[in-house]
Amino acid sequence: MTFTEIFAALTATGISFRYEKWATKPTGTYGVYTLTPSENFFADGEVYTAVETLTVRIYSKSRDFSAEQKIESVLQNYQKDSEYDNDEKKYVVTYQKEVIYNA
Known about the structure:
Helices cover 18% and strands 49% of the residues. The protein is an alpha+beta fold. Strands 1, 2, 3, 4, 5 and 6 form a six-stranded mixed β-sheet that branches. It is elongated, with a radius of gyration of 15 Å. The two termini are 13 Å apart. The model has no long low-confidence stretch (mean pLDDT 88).
């Protein structure tokens, strides 16, 4: 999955997404995602397979199970966590998975 494919898949859910942060947070359910370097696989002195960690967070005033199902239909092999953020006054559901790019 490429960076462009990730963004397209997330926005296809109908949930508003931005990379890393929102300048002005929207009302309703919205999300952010990030890609952070992880452990690459090296062979013969070069990167054979690049691995990054995709983190997707959805924010909602109350648990939005419909939004969660949409995200889960896009992602496979993910880790999921949820909590209430007192500062944001929102529920935050976090998904993480590895994204592998073959060179």
